[in-house]
């Protein structure tokens, strides 16, 4: 998490995200997510976590205060790497089988744009300073 209090861990064998409290080194939540999840990112304000589910072609949206799933967004075949913009308004998702980066408005949770990338985008990094 941005404040350094929590660590989010995707666990493929159990199809969940474990949340560890770093101060006391305890797992404090286990959140069920879609099968075959790969990428995870936490919003810049720490209020949400986003998990890519490559098997179900969805992004799972987690409320990072209550540690519950609040939505799943269908994004196309093979979502993998994902990253929120510095201002937290956009979630970028690499969709491997459709060869694109989709942009999701983090307020409405709707896809607003896509960028064709060529063969099999996998991870995303954002350059520059916030």
Task: Outline the structure in words.
The protein is built from no helices and eleven strands. It has a four-stranded antiparallel sheet, with no helix packed on it. The chain is globular, with a radius of gyration of 14 Å. Helices cover 0% and strands 53% of the residues. It has a domain at 36-116: Thrombin, subunit H (Beta Barrel). β1 and β2 (16-21) form a beta hairpin. With 130 residues, it is mostly beta strands. The chain has strands spanning 6-11, 16-21, 26-32, 37-42, 48-53, 58-63, 68-74, 79-84, 90-95, 100-105, 110-116. The two termini are 16 Å apart.
How far apart, in Å, are the first and last alpha carbons? Answer: 16 Å
Spans of at least 5 consecutive residues with low confidence: none
Principal-axes geometry comes out as globular
Helix percent reads under 10%
CATH topology of the domain at 36-116: Thrombin, subunit H
Tell me the β content.
over 45%
Number of helices: 0
Q: How would a textbook summarize the main sheet?
A: 4 strands, antiparallel
- The helix/strand series, from N terminus to C terminus, equals EEEEEEEEEEE
Biggest sheet strand order reads 4-5-6-7
At CATH's second level, what is the architecture of the domain at 36-116? Answer: Beta Barrel
Q: Indicate the mean pLDDT.
A: 92
Q: Write down the oligomeric state.
A: single chain
Structural class: mainly beta
Which helices and strands occur, and which strands form pairs?
Blueprint (H helix, E strand, L loop, with lengths): L5 E6 L4 E6 L4 E7 L4 E6 L5 E6 L4 E6 L4 E7 L4 E6 L5 E6 L4 E6 L4 E7 L14
Antiparallel strand pairs: 1-2, 2-3, 4-5, 5-6, 6-7, 8-9, 9-10, 10-11
């Amino acid at each position: 998490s941005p404040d350094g209090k929590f660590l989010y861990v995707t666990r493929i064998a159990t199809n969940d995200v474990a949340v560890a409290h770093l101060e006391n080194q305890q797992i404090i939540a286990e959140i069920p997510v879609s099968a075959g999840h790969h990428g995870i990112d936490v919003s810049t304000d720490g209020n949400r976590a986003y998990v890519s589910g490559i098997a179900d072609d969805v992004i799972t949206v987690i409320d990072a205060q209550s540690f519950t799933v609040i939505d799943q967004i269908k994004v196309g075949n093979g979502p993998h790497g994902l990253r929120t913009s510095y201002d937290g308004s956009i979630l970028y998702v690499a969709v491997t089988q459709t060869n694109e980066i989709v942009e999701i408005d983090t307020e409405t949770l709707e896809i607003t744009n896509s960028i064709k990338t060529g063969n099999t985008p996998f991870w995303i990094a954002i350059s520059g300073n916030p």
